[in-house]
Design brief:
The structure is a homodimer. By secondary structure, chain A is α+β, with helices and mostly antiparallel strands. The first copy, chain A, is 31% helix and 28% strand. In chain A, helix 1 packs across helix 2, helix 4 packs parallel to helix 6 and helix 7 crosses helix 8. Chain A is globular, with a radius of gyration of 20 Å. Chains A, B: It holds the Pfam family Peptidase_M29.
């Protein structure tokens, strides 16, 4: 086994999930994640955790979903499993990113509704989501398998404690600030309020309210956006490639939108419900181990020199007691490259220019 | 997908496990059983069952067990999963039958003790165990992959309702009988009591107290054996090949034993506890779809023209209210070929001679 697989497992179990002896842990293994599952099991054995391993096969899901009459129920056994779990480790990494492409949307939605109590029980645990590099994901990224593996481990095997310290600076700025302004070139100038909201130092650990490995972003839940914003990083929405999204906000809501391609998929998202036209997240990517876009939001949104906004649901972690965040059935991240001709201001102070932060060499205020 | 995989899934879900809409089902998938898992998921979707899929990977287990300090605990989440399940479908079929060969025996035993409540919860469900044909199992059987697949489907895809009817005749004979005598050649002449015991018509369905697919045997829980018996079908005990076991019983217990090879492994079994020297099972193989020995007890003991005895634990299903069966930590089946020079008598009547039953052509009473 590549030693990096073991290092990945160690970061996941110790830094991210903080597993201790006696913890009841569910490990969810995607079809292509066997090798990481073996390394994680070894680490969980060392820590003395109690483990149930589930098989998160897209092909199994597809067969089940397509055969079902859509009168889905919540499985009491599944609910009991997660209600009694301390942690859930999701080991992604499938063999075909389109494995469930022919499951009808109505079926997915019906299944998701029935699974809502299970989802909530999972989210109440110390869950962490990561991926094992597979050939399928390499293909999605447009990379060779070998190069993709290096890419993943560069992103995952960081000095997380050091990055957490750096990100704490940005969290402090956002926690204390009232208004963020994002400016880029001629097309993007967006102001949004963050007054009363709490930023998350997403350092890839449940100890930081952070549930993705890799992570490396600071995010908060903005509201009342005014202005326009362009997202130049392509994304995939329900299998449709979407490029160059432009959103115009007035009165806190999207009043105009366009996309160079995939505009229908974008329109579907924005029409989901009322909250889908409002903002749910502002995130600032700070993981410099990620050096390219790979058509995977888990990585893309964490990349240094990027900023992302999500329409839809806000995360509870950004909402102090008494603050109600935006609610929606969707949460769709859109990313913009801020390495050039860009700045972020908080209450009028520049806190990032062309990707460079105030505490970094070369910063121009 | 080979249509036989779908047929296998259908027999498992409908005939064996009797799954109905709303049932909470756990599907346990071995490393090599993905294809069968997909077919089973499709069938469970059609039936409207609620499914949790677990990953029964030997390599994951090995890594976990070897890393653990042996202070195992029962996972509350795992217990909750099975206590809330209606059915558990075990889809065997690994990639290496020796994948856990280097897990120390003490570790296995400690883990098994901690898992005892989980095992009991699983056994309280309508569980069924089957295997998907893998290259590893073909290798164990000494067969090509293609030939092994045919072998498995010949054994599994029976007319089970018809076989259940035939086996009901043997069950009736055993239920009404008091003493069984097994005679073969010069070396085997064993008498044992079955008075007060109930035979199981093991027709590969929970509706018949039968939990293996394939099955095709009638078994009961004999006691007070007297005489000698030789088992000419080789078996594997904890990785050791054991051949030509000979047991001599006096006063209901093994008083002498030998084996042409693997005698130490046999000795270990018999020394486990007091019950390990008494009988737990007498089974009569009646599945004529199984035409060769493949070093897998799931198949070998069901083969037509064979009889097996087990030392150790008796099955509860053979014990009417008030009957206490033999108790032991082990249950080890040993098989003898009765196609020639053999007969089974019940209370003095020949009920099988040279593999032929009274209701078959060519029977000689």
């Amino acid at each position: 086994m590549d030693p990096k697989v073991r290092e990945h497992a160690e970061v996941l179990v110790d830094w991210s999930a903080r597993i201790e002896a006696g913890d009841d842990v569910v490990v969810s293994v995607a079809e292509g994640a066997h090798e990481l599952a073996v390394a994680v099991a070894e680490k969980l054995g060392e820590r003395g955790a109690n483990v149930v391993t589930t098989y998160a096969s897209d092909e199994v899901s597809r067969a089940y979903l397509r055969a079902h009459d859509r009168a889905f129920e919540t499985g009491e056994h599944e609910l009991a499993l997660y209600e009694n779990a301390d942690s859930v480790l999701f080991l992604g990494g499938g063999r075909n990113t389109f494995a469930t492409a022919d499951v009808p949307g109505e079926t997915r939605q019906a299944a998701a509704r029935a699974a809502e109590p299970v989802r909530e029980a999972r989210m109440d645990t110390d869950w962490v989501s990561t991926v094992h590099p597979t050939r399928s994901l390499a293909q999605q990224a447009g990379m060779s398998y070998e190069a993709y593996r290096e890419f993943v481990y560069d992103a995952v095997l960081r000095d997380w404690a050091e990055l957490a310290e750096e990100m704490a600076r940005m969290k402090e700025i956002l926690d204390e600030g009232s208004e963020v302004r994002l400016v880029k070139g001629e097309d993007t100038d967006l102001r949004m309020s963050i007054e009363g909201r709490r930023a998350v130092n997403s350092a890839a650990s449940v100890a930081y309210d952070s549930h993705n490995l890799p992570s490396g972003e600071v995010f908060t839940a903005p509201y009342d956006p005014e202005g326009a914003v362009c997202f130049d990083v392509p994304m995939t929405l329900s299998g449709t490639r979407v490029r160059d999204v432009r959103l115009t906000f007035e009165g806190g809501e999207v009043v105009d939108f366009s996309a160079a391609s995939g505009e229908d998929a974008l329109s579907d998202v924005l029409d989901t419900d009322e909250g889908a036209r409002r903002l749910g997240e502002l995130g600032i990517g700070m993981n410099r181990g990620i050096d390219r876009f790979t058509d995977s939001v888990l990585f893309d949104e964490k990349m240094g020199d990027t900023v992302h906004l999500a329409v839809g649901r806000a995360y509870d972690a950004c909402l102090p007691e008494g603050e109600a965040g935006n609610d929606s059935a969707v949460h769709v991240d859109m990313i913009t490259d801020v390495s050039e001709d860009s700045r972020i201001e908080v209450d009028g102070d520049v806190v990032q220019r062309n990707g460079v932060f105030p505490w970094e060499d070369g910063f121009e205020g």
